[in-house]
Structures are given as C-alpha cells and as structure tokens.
Specification:
Chain lengths: 184, 189
Amino acid sequence: MREPVDQPTETELVALAQGGDHAAFEALYRAHSGRVHALCLRMTCNAALADDCVQEAFVQAWRKLSSFQGASAFGTWLYRIAVNEVLGVQRRDRRRVTHLQVVGEEERTEELEYSHSLGLEAGEEMDVEQAVRALPEGARNVFVMVGLHGYSHEEAASALGVAVGTCKAQLHRARQLLAKRLIP
Amino acid sequence: MNEREMNEALDARLAKLARDIPPGRDLWPQISARLRDDDQIVAPIGRNRVRGVWWWQLGAAAVLVALSSLTTYGLMSRQKAASERVAAVEFVQHELGAASFLPAGYVQARQELSVAFDESLARLSPETQQVVETNLRDIERSLKQISDALARDPGNATLQQLLVAASTQELRYLDEVRRLALNVPSKGA
C-alpha cells in the first residue's frame, strides 16, 4: 500500500514560488483563481475584463513575490493586487464612458456573457447577482469587498482610497438598494 | 417587515452566492508564458538559472522571430482565417523543431495571442492601426538585425539576451494592443 504523499502547505508553495518555481506558483493559481475571479467579475461586471484582471493580478503577484513577507495571508495579499487591477480598469473605463455611449445591443451581449461566467441560469441566485451588478460602482465595490468577500472596512477603505466612514456609508447604501430590489 | 427582519432576509439570500467562481477558461497557459518572459529578463540579475538555459531561450526567441513574421503576414492579409493562421504557426513550430525547447502551453498561448491581436486590431481606427503596424515593424526590424548578427556570431551572449528582450517586447506589445482594444467598441456595434 502506497504511503500518502504530503501536499505542500501554502507557505511552502509561496517559498518555492519565491525561488522561481513555476509549478508551485501554478498550484497557488489553482487554489486562488476562483476567488480572485469572483472578486474581479463582480467588481468589473464584465467577463472579458475580469479574465484580464485575473491574468494581470497573477503576473503582478509573480513580479512582486519577493516583496511578500508573510505578514498577511498570501490570499489577502493577492486579492489586494487583484483589486488594484480592477480599480485601474474602472478608471480607464470611466474615461471611455465620457466619450462613448454604450449601445443597447452591446450591453445585452455583455450581460449574457456575465451570466454565463457566473455559471448560473435564471433563478433566485441570478436575480441577486443582477441586483449586485446594478449597484452604482462605488457602492458595488464596497459591497463586493466587505459584504461578500470578507474584507474589513479598514482594508476596503485603504484599497479603494476612501475614508472608513465613506466605506461604511457605501455598504449601507448598497444593502438598502439590494433590499429594495430583492425583498418584497 | 421591520429593518431587522429585512436584513436577515437579505443576508439569507446573499449567503447563497458563490464566493469562488472559476474563470470560464484556463488562464494559466497565458500567465505561464508571461512569467517565462519575465524570467528571461530577470535571469541575468536575479533568479538562479540552470546551465544551458540559453538554448531554451534561444529556441523560444527563434520561434518568436518566426511567429513575428507570421504576425506581419497576418497584418497584411487580415482576411486570412484564424484556423489557417494556427496551421501556419504549427508548421513553423514543426520546421524549427522547437517544441522540445518550449514549456507546455507556451506556443498555444502565443497562437491565441496572435489570433486575438488581429481581432483586436480590427477594432481600432485606421489611424491607430497604422501606428500599431509601424511600431510592430520597428520591433521586427530590431529582431531581424539581432538575429542576423547572431547568425554571424551564434555564441554571443549579449546578442542572445538582446534577442530575447526584443522578442519579449514584441509579445508584450501584442498583448497590450489586445488589452487596450477591449475598451474600444467593435465597429459593428
């Protein structure tokens, strides 16, 4: 009977990746890509942009890996990089929207791709996802980070570059809008 | 319904949402290819390298040079079907015998990028397309000069590094055009 092989811990994988081990970094990608993708998808509301942010976040993480000292969990550090990528995309997108009007057909296509990325058919969960998607950007960012992905207000405020009070107010606003739409 | 009941009802619905949603496609091949590009630049100053790694880098660079020619060809004949492009890339890969040099997923990622690049380019205005094509020609001219010099002096480590750097620059440029074009609505929209 074969002895069970111990899987390396996340700390060991990080240490191996810091030494240039691609296989260890791939294992970290496999472990965290779903959560990073969920965060990016809900913040960008666009499947293609979310994929791009995930890819960019992992490339940036690889480049900055030597600076990771383990003061926080690897996931926390990684998600912060992903959030920065999303915020960069949103800033670029904001500039674009001032010049262009989204055409109805294109918006419907994006909506379909978004639903497909979530892996959901029409139903209760899809209704909630669409309600989250409909939130104003500022409220949605805070809600996704704090309300869904467990960030503290301090962490979210720091990542988003807003005051903690603003963060709390945005979360309250998001919850009110969601309740209005979802709770009869 | 009072506020507390409403909050509880909302929390119950939110609790059902997935916190983990895998990407629709595996993004690792593209990420892996970009990490290897980084390694090639970092190698002389940082990470530990194994002896003989330049053979791999040279092989990868040679494939990139060949692929860059294909990209130029693609720019000049955009009507060419993507499937034909992939077949051509596979032919070059086979002719060079480069498969053994390259990490799993690298060539595939490069092929995808090449196809995605053409689609992205079509979204840009004719003026921007012209700028992109001019920039690419400049990179390709550099690649050709370096590879010609390498043909005369194959053991020159500086030229080898320059070739890898220029190839990496081209790859990044293609990817950047693709990324920027995502923010431009398609012409049909």
